[in-house]
Amino acid sequence: MTGVANSIVGFSTIFFCLAIGADGITANIVGYAVALTCSFLLNRHYVFGVRGTISHTEVGRFIAVFFTAFGVNMAVLLLTQSMLGEGSPVAQVLAVGAYTLVFYPLTRLFVFRRKSVA
């Protein structure tokens, strides 16, 4: 559910920016910036149940995980497009799947890891 909500926020932001006259690249950058912020907040609170003050370390780690997962996404996309064609929906699905397979565990282990009880 958080992924769906985040996608709606991101696409809505992109379409709003386009509607008020922003070019496609600007709209995309703004949309992703808003969606990344939304993703952080939704994942932190609803997916991983973290409460309390947000730390700079947490934000930095989240951004690092995002770029890592996005890099994997792009690598898989380029590889699968080279085999299936540039417009292949299968390539897109595989790329998004790879993103998710990297993003979730790294977010769980590196960003919002639970403190062990001593």
Q: In words, what does this structure look like?
A:
The protein is 80% helix and 0% strand. By secondary structure, the protein is mainly alpha-helical. It has helices spanning 2-19, 24-47, 56-84, 89-111. The chain is globular, with a radius of gyration of 16 Å. The protein has four helices and no strands. It folds into two domains: 1-47, no CATH class; 52-118, no CATH class. The chain crosses the membrane at residues 12-42, 62-84, 90-111. Keywords: Membrane, Transmembrane, Transmembrane helix.
List keywords for this structure.
mainly alpha, 2 domains, 118 residues, 4 helices, 80% helix
Helices and strands in order, then pairings?
Layout: H1 2-19, H2 24-47, H3 56-84, H4 89-111
Helix pairs in contact: 1-2, 3-4
InterPro entries: GtrA_CellWall_Glycosyl, GtrA_DPMS_TM
Organism: Erythrobacter fulvus
Protein name: GtrA family protein
Summarize the structure.
Residues 2-112 form the GtrA/DPMS transmembrane domain. With 118 residues, this protein is mainly α.
Overall geometry comes to globular
Total count of domains: 2
- Please give the largest β-sheet: none
Distance between the termini: 33 Å
User: Considering DSSP H and I runs of 4 or more, what fraction of the residues is helical?
Assistant: over 70%
Unreliable stretches: none
Strand content: under 5%
Number of contiguous helices = 4
- For the secondary structure, the number of strands is 0
Secondary-structure element order, as H and E? Answer: HHHH
What is the average of the pLDDT values? 89
Q: Any idea what the radius of gyration is?
A: 16 Å
The secondary-structure class comes to mainly alpha
